[in-house]
């Protein structure tokens, strides 16, 4: 029987605990606060930002949505970030990616105070992650580890294969799995004989943005399959990077899209925002 790794249910369970933590923090005079900056009007980004806002509100986290026009200059954006860096009531700052053309993504990421970089994209946090030091970790890979932990899946010693090497998913996923003692293989668009690599995976994590590219013949029977993709197929339907109908019968466990990795990403963002806010309690005393 294939286990469906239910990200929505898991995220809801984790959020019940987190809500209690937020209540305790508030009683100690600290209201966790997350600022999300969205530049432009990309419809998919707007949906994700709205989901984050809803989740924050339901937990009692203060959520600031800063919507800027697509004509915003890099200097203006850096100015807004500088204000949030200086505001001691703000714990987490997230700038939704992708940014409009003409804005240097790395310049923006590096302008966020590493302590408030709730995405874990700042090179300081990336360096901490690869050195296996404590720090903020990118929410999608963090959420995937939390989902595996919830289902009591121990990755130690597993052959983990990651398809995709982006800074927001593939690379931090590799670091986390390595930190948890998996044997990690990274693959990407230049990888030769991809199917041979994926078929060797005990744990397969796919983040390519290519609708349903992972087919049943690319998966080892019994493998754990994590589908990060949020794609539209030719019919306009939301699908993952994995052909779910074909792969699910072969896999030992699999995440659905929607309801898999997406809700865990948002939950992770909330968990790490609260973790940052916790530090303020000690600073106050
Ligand atoms: N659910 C969630 O929480 C999140 C979902 N996503 C979704 O995950 C997907 C990936 O996002 P992201 O990592 O930002 O994407 P990017 O476009 O930044 O990176 C895609 C990666 O996939 C690789 N790739 C592309 N095509 C192939 C192929 N045919 N075979 C092997 N590798 C390939 C690319 O290789 P190369 O480097 O060689 O170009 C690249 O490394 C998207 O669908 C996105 O919407 C993203 C973030 C969070
Ligand atoms: N700075 C930054 N940080 C990010 O973490 C970030 C980003 N930029 N840019 C885009 C990607 C994508 N991402 C998602 C978050 C939630 C869902 C999500 O909630 N998905 C739901 C429902 C989605 C739907 O129904 O459309 C699900 O899978 O069930 C998906 C994708 C975060 N990202």
From TrEMBL:
NADP(+) binds at residues 164-166. The keyword Amino-acid biosynthesis applies. PROSITE patterns: THF_DHG_CYH_1, THF_DHG_CYH_2. It catalyses: (6R)-5,10-methylene-5,6,7,8-tetrahydrofolate + NADP(+) = (6R)-5,10-methenyltetrahydrofolate + NADPH; (6R)-5,10-methenyltetrahydrofolate + H2O = (6R)-10-formyltetrahydrofolate + H(+). Keywords: Amino-acid biosynthesis, Histidine biosynthesis, Hydrolase, Methionine biosynthesis, Multifunctional enzyme, NADP, One-carbon metabolism, Oxidoreductase, Purine biosynthesis. The keyword Chaperone does not apply. InterPro entries: Aminoacid_DH-like_N_sf (IPR046346), NAD(P)-bd_dom_sf (IPR036291), THF_DH/CycHdrlase (IPR000672), THF_DH/CycHdrlase_cat_dom (IPR020630), THF_DH/CycHdrlase_CS (IPR020867), THF_DH/CycHdrlase_NAD-bd_dom (IPR020631). This is Bifunctional protein FolD. It comes from Lacticaseibacillus baoqingensis. The lineage of its organism: Bacteria, Bacillati, Bacillota, Bacilli, Lactobacillales. The gene is folD.
